[in-house]
Amino acid sequence: MRKESKHKILILGASGFLGGAIYKELCSYFRTFGTYNISNAVFEKNKHFFQYNIEEDDIYEILDIVKPTIIISALRGNFSKQVLIHQHLAEYVFTNKIKLLYLSSANVFDAYIKYPSYEQDKTYSNSIYGHFKIKIENMLLRLPKKQIAILRLPMVFGSQSPRVQEIIQYIKDKEPIEVFPNLIMNVTTDSKITQQIHYIINRNKFGIFHLGSNDLVHHDDFIKEIVNAFPFEEKAIYKRVYTTNDDRYLAVLPKFNKLPKHLQLYSQDIISELKI
Ligand SMILES: NC(=O)c1ccc[n+]([C@@H]2O[C@H](COP(=O)([O-])OP(=O)(O)OC[C@H]3O[C@@H](n4cnc5c(N)ncnc54)[C@H](OP(=O)(O)O)[C@@H]3O)[C@@H](O)[C@H]2O)c1
């Protein structure tokens, strides 16, 4: 019954950390399909999953089979190939009058180090990653505005996140955990992002979303709070990395395109979730 929704959703990168979490959130409510890259017996048996490599495969073949009404792009991989496939996706979205949700990053603002950034600020980056995200964003922002949602994410934590898993591993291996004392950022979790995406789909929201916590944290303090959320026998070792002399912001704060209160978060919510 619940699956009789009008939407058919295709998640590019559904085998990844965020794509996988989004797939799990949506698959009971919508006809949901996904792509994976590295061969995997579980996905091969699942008729809702398609093997897709941006270096070799044509995305149109999968689009023709699935005929999605919503595409969610949660891919990684070669930057110039990603630009190319998003060009193809933009054409498909335009021609078929469907919608695209794109997972972007706070790095589209990484050249503004003195302030946090809001939805309508002009993007500006010093990094290759930030430049490439801006290039895709700009291409998508030329499409009719109701057909696009750009979701700018800060660093994503959560118990299953690669970032938290890596911290746990470093402590077990007695290796130092890198912290950036000058970095002021906001943060989020996979569980909040998936709820936010579900809402954006249900309510047909569009535009640019800044999906970071309402508060800012220093990177080193936040990482230490994460470590303290777990009952480790071993003591954590930290390596302080200073990339600039002054404080540097990497934060995407919501201001103009806000989601309802229950879909907003504070950094402490992440720590509380880890303690459960
Ligand atoms: N995680 C964060 O903290 C964070 C923060 C800001 C923005 N984002 C953005 O969110 C998106 C998803 O990130 P994630 O952390 O979930 O990444 P991830 O766990 O590395 O997942 C990436 C996905 O892309 C697929 N992929 C990788 N190389 C590919 C290729 N050559 N061809 C086709 N598919 C390929 C992977 O498939 P296989 O696993 O099968 O290789 C996987 O499904 C990215 O666009 C990222 O920029 C993430």
Explained architecture:
With 276 residues, this protein is an alpha/beta fold. The protein is 35% helix and 21% strand. It is built from nine helices and 14 strands. It has helices at residues 17-26, 41-45, 59-66, 79-96, 128-140, 162-172, 190-202, 219-228, 267-275, and strands spanning 8-12, 31-36, 49-51, 70-73, 99-105, 148-153, 155-157, 176-179, 183-185, 187-189, 207-210, 217-218, 237-240, 248-250. The strands form four sheets. The protein has a seven-stranded parallel beta sheet with strand order 3-2-1-4-5-6-11, sandwiched between helices. The chain has a three-stranded mixed beta sheet with strand order 12-9-14. The chain has a two-stranded parallel sheet with strand order 7-10. Helix 4 (79-96) packs parallel to helix 5 (128-140). The protein is globular and about 55 Å long. Residues 13, 15-19, 36-38, 52-55, 74-77, 103, 105, 153, 155-156 line the site of NADP nicotinamide-adenine-dinucleotide phosphate.
